[in-house]
């Protein structure tokens, strides 16, 4: 039968990613892996205490994580493993798993009700709403390596004194940038009340309340109230502008003009996805991402050429484009 | 920024698999991809007609499949693509996607309710039941290359005159074997009423009703009624025996002895998973598979050594083991 075992040649990727996704999703649901992912080390006893889950269950879970290459057991104490630390490639694993969990987890309510979306997209989109916290978590995981580092590097490269982040969530990206730029101020704008509450508490815990303002508002409000943009040397919008297309195209154009007019010396960084990414290694995910947006979310992604024209029409004369790790992802750097 | 794009190096696997999984799951939910996966070609008009879904929707879906490397467009007719054929690696893609959809789709009700499983496994297992048809489909997809071909080769290698398949589902494996063995008879046993009804209709459509008997019964019933096993030259059980462990261990032992006694000249093929597969490339998926079985399904997988002892105790003196494509999967060939 040895000639039959050859089919395993390609198995490591799909199976490995799936196995890791299953385990990390279980851990995230139970809150028994969060501190490990943040701090890169945990004690079984501490996790059991903080969650109220039996230590034997936590132990079995971490033993499974270790077998899956997601944790490294510490030395045995009285024949038991009491601590685990992160392996060097944990970030990459989380990043990979983020895609699977976004696609098959966060988007599950859309896919499960595909029949309704085929019949009536607006009605289905109102009925089957994704879990915002799940989307936020899986997006954060995908971004670990595939868009946050690139955005952070682009934001900090010119050492701006003032950064405005549109759709700032819990201000994770903004805080990382400000730590690298001790003299900079930041403004985070997000329409989610719960995200802003959480952001303010994180900002305070970081002792950054004198440097960061959190504004709870839709980004559209900046057209009438552009004051937060004044003096901005970097305006960053990560995966927020595509939510204005196609229904609010005029609003998007007005917003871009507002950025250009209110912060004339600033650069605008647009991080977003183009449809059906043309590079072979981005084909499959970008196809699914584009199709979900068009046929399940009522969104139209814009190709590079359209973004360049739109930014040019808003008064930005220089626009550079670079790819991101996420398939179809692009970072547009627009300057006056 | 060119130095920042390097993080895409490993992206193709996780992103590609996720993209393909999203699209194939949408197609399966809508019934617009089934005939394509079976026949390896489709016409947009035919799919639209048979499903009642707008041809423009089907067209957009197949264009996305094509971009994702899952379909190849035929020539344009009046500037439109009307037909698609399968790419050479479609089987491999389906096989890969099967894992993701089994883990994050079929098992979603377990993972989503992890808190309940932690508190009370038996109660949770009764409350949150997986969709049997979804499990059957994703298992079939995983098996496309990773266990059915190996099982088929092992079953047909000795050119048996009578094959008994335990947990035969819709008799797909049995029919494939019988087509290669024109003089053989087959018996399929499954406890699912709907699977047996479907199996009988498939057997009839294949004109094989004189060669295949479908018995709707739990495999445990063979201990008291071993008649279907008489004269069997191959008895095959694929991923069925682990459902007897640990609660029905005595039943499993009695079953094995029944096989040995009733079909003394036959070989028993046990296709099943061992816990925490020791080979590095099976670590991650096997860890998740094992943990789900132990902590969410109340099942205990048996290591190779335990299987060998158990088969030996039942009277099988020669037991060979070979790996399968699925992580932790093994095929035990037991002979008198």
UniProtKB/TrEMBL annotation, chains A, B:
Residues 160-316 form the O-methyltransferase C-terminal domain. One of its GO terms (molecular function) is methyltransferase activity. Keywords: Methyltransferase, Transferase. One of its GO terms (biological process) is methylation. It comes from the Bacteria. It holds the Pfam family Methyltransf_2. This is Methyltransferase domain-containing protein. It comes from Archangium minus.
């Amino acid at each position: 039968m040895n000639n039959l075992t050859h089919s395993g040649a390609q198995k490591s990727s799909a199976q490995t990613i799936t196995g890791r996704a299953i385990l990390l999703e279980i851990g995230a649901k139970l809150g028994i892996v969060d501190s490990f992912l943040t701090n890169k080390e945990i004690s079984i006893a501490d996790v059991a205490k903080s969650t109220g889950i039996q230590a034997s269950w936590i132990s079995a879970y971490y033993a499974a994580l270790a077998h899956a290459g997601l944790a490294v057991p510490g030395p045995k104490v009285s024949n038991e493993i009491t601590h685990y630390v992160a392996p060097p490639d944990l970030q990459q694993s989380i990043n990979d798993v983020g895609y699977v969990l976004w696609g098959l987890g966060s988007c599950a309510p859309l896919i499960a009700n595909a029949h309704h979306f085929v019949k009536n997209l607006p009605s289905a989109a109102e009925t089957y709403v994704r879990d915002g916290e799940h989307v936020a978590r899986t997006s954060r995981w995908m971004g670990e390596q595939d868009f946050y580092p690139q955005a952070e590097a682009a934001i900090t490269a010119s050492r701006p004194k003032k950064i405005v982040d549109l759709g700032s969530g819990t201000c994770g990206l903004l805080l990382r940038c400000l730590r690298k730029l001790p003299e900079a101020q930041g403004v985070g704008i997000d329409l989610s009340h719960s995200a802003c509450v959480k952001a303010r508490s994180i900002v305070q815990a970081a002792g950054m309340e004198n440097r960061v303002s959190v504004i709870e508002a839709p980004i559209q409000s900046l057209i009438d109230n552009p004051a937060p943009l004044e003096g901005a040397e970097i305006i960053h919008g990560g995966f927020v502008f595509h939510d204005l297309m196609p229904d609010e195209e005029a609003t998007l154009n007005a917003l871009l003009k507002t950025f250009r007019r209110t912060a004339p010396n600033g650069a605008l960084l647009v991080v977003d996805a183009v449809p059906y990414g043309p590079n072979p290694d981005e084909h499959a995910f970008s196809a699914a991402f584009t199709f979900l947006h068009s046929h399940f979310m009522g969104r139209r992604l814009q190709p590079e050429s359209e973004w360049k024209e739109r930014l040019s029409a808003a008064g930005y004369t220089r626009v550079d484009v670079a790819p991101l790790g996420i398939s179809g992802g692009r970072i547009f750097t627009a300057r006056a």
